[in-house]
Design a protein that fits this description.
The structure holds 2 protein chains of 2 kinds. In chain A, 34% of the residues lie in helices and 25% in strands. Chain A has 8 helices and 9 strands. In chain A, helix 6 links the parallel strand 6 and strand 7. The longest helix of chain A is centred in the C-terminal third of the chain and has 18 residues. Chain B has one domain: Orthogonal Bundle (MetI-like fold). The chains are: A alpha/beta, B mainly alpha. Chains A and B meet through strand 5 and helix 3 of A and helix 7 and helix 8 of B.
């Protein structure tokens, strides 16, 4: 893997045992011959039908599971799962500091760093609030802050705004747009929201139904983020939907 | 609280009414008034016995908590230990306490040790099951997140799983404290010269039935007080646990 490539999957296939089946029989082919290269600093969105294996692709890239076939090389990745998943017993600050503590930082050092990030990300005032007292949008922001704060060159966001209502989603997306340049990371973004992909990504990979393979790669000409009403975003959106066989 | 007091008052009223109307001998079934008189008359004896039994309970529960925590952590972290230790854990609950109490007195003597061991034996199972449930209840995706941040198995356990198990441990303790008074009574009756179980055992052959009932009332009050103390502790220290919601 060259220095300028942060994540590289080569001819990756993956299957998992079908529910209720013996591990040796009835395996479900999830991914088939996936090639993916993400350059350092690039934001790549992965879109595809529900259940096609987008999240599995992230787990493979993160090294949390091994492919059946093919190779995965990646710089260390911090993962943000779909539901954010904060620890209910911990304050927002301690939740955000989890990544640093997982890497071995002391509690006080991790909190100090988290406080700095809270100030940079506009989350001041929420440090001592517990997750059950936060709105859905704020919970996702804390989960995103936790992901950005972990000292990892790549972040993998698995449908980060899927659980939010439309208004909160737009707010959280705008917040992410401000936060990403601040963080300066390579980003792998899994989303089912084609508009989100068209606005945020430097490159968009479209996956087929399961077993998923890459059926298209779209690289908008202008730099992200883009105006959601721009012709380019609308065009990318139409292109993605056409590849997915959905009428826009 | 008021409803609970009303139910207790109604129960005592019916009991008193039955005693008055049926003319049952107070040596067979003393009325609540007889029991109340005994509570006052024998207060010195009952107080001293209460302190003995409470001491046994505290030490026994502490021992149960320590052993249950070690066993639950070992079982949680090791599949081999899970397969080998779980049957033994269940087996501890199949031992008839009156029988094992007599055997332990023969082995460990007539002082505090066998009482503490028997209370611990009774309390151990709900505590270990509570901790195991708490440990197993951590969302697997949160585990993925922690691992993606670079945490190893033990650090992930310390940061995420151990705190998640605390409400389960306290719930187990709340169940344990109620049933372990039974263990304390059997232990005191198997061999001892103090405690509420001993008072009951001595009162019956002397036809001091009201005193035996008074000791039972004190025993129940002790279990109830300990249960309430643990419930308040859980609500105060772990407001995120669902305790409050389930009891509303």
């Amino acid at each position: 893997m060259s220095d300028s490539i942060a994540v590289e999957l080569t001819e990756v296939s993956f299957s998992r045992p079908q529910r209720g089946q013996n591990a040796d029989k009835g395996r479900l082919q999830v991914l088939e011959g996936i090639d993916l290269q993400v350059a350092t600093g690039e934001t790549v969105a992965i879109v595809g039908p529900n259940g096609c294996g987008k999240s599995t692709l992230l787990e493979l890239a993160c090294g949390l599971i091994e492919p059946d076939v093919g190779t995965v090389h990646s710089e260390p990745i911090a993962l943000m799962p779909q539901r954010g998943l904060l620890m209910p017993w911990a304050s927002a600050l301690d939740n955000a500091a989890l990544g640093l503590r997982a890497e071995g930082a002391s509690k006080s050092d991790a909190r100090d760093t988290a406080r700095e990030w809270f100030a940079r990300l506009g989350l001041e005032g929420f440090e001592s609030v517990r997750p059950n007292e936060l709105s859905g949008g704020m919970r996702q922001r804390v989960a995103l802050a936790r992901t950005l704060m972990a000292d990892r060159p790549v972040i993998a966001l698995d449908e980060p705004f899927a659980a939010l209502d439309a208004l909160s989603r737009i707010e959280a997306r705008n917040w992410l747009l401000d936060a990403l340049p601040e963080a300066g990371r390579t980003v792998l973004l899994v989303t089912h929201d084609v508009e989100e992909a068209a606005i945020l990504a430097d490159r968009i990979l479209v996956l087929s139904k399961r077993p998923a393979s890459v059926i298209a790669e779209i690289a908008p000409a202008s730099a992200a983020p883009r105006d959601r009403t721009s012709d380019e975003v609308l065009g990318s959106r139409e292109q993605i939907l056409a590849f997915l066989g959905v009428e826009g | 609280m008021i409803r609970a007091l009303l139910v207790i008052a109604a129960f005592l009223g019916l009991w008193e009414l039955y005693c008055v109307l049926s003319g049952v001998d107070q040596l067979v079934l003393p009325s609540p008034v007889d029991v109340g008189e005994s509570l006052w008359r024998d207060r010195s004896l009952l107080w001293s016995a209460l302190l003995t039994t409470a001491g046994e309970l505290i030490l026994g529960l502490a021992l149960a908590l320590a052993v249950a925590t070690a066993a639950a952590v070992a079982i949680h972290l090791s599949r081999t230990l899970r397969q080998s230790l779980y049957p033994l854990l269940v087996a501890t609950q199949t031992v008839p306490i009156p029988v094992i109490a007599s055997l332990l007195v023969v082995w460990l003597g007539y002082d505090l040790a066998p009482k503490v061991v028997i209370v611990a034996l009774v309390a151990f199972f709900p505590v270990v099951v509570g901790i195991l449930d708490g440990l197993a209840g951590v969302d697997p995706e949160l585990d993925l997140v922690t691992r993606s941040f670079g945490a190893g198995r033990l650090r992930s356990f310390r940061l995420v799983e151990a705190p998640a198990a605390l409400p389960g441990a306290l719930t187990g303790m709340r169940i344990a404290v109620v049933i372990s008074v039974i263990g304390a009574v059997f232990a005191e009756q198997a061999g001892g010269d103090s405690g509420l179980g001993f008072v009951i055992q001595q009162a019956l052959p002397q036809l001091l039935t009201a005193r035996a009932y008074a000791a039972v009332v004190v025993l129940s009050a002790l279990a109830l007080a300990a249960f309430l103390l643990l419930t308040i502790t859980q609500k105060r220290l772990m407001p995120w646990s669902r305790l409050g919601e389930s009891q509303r």
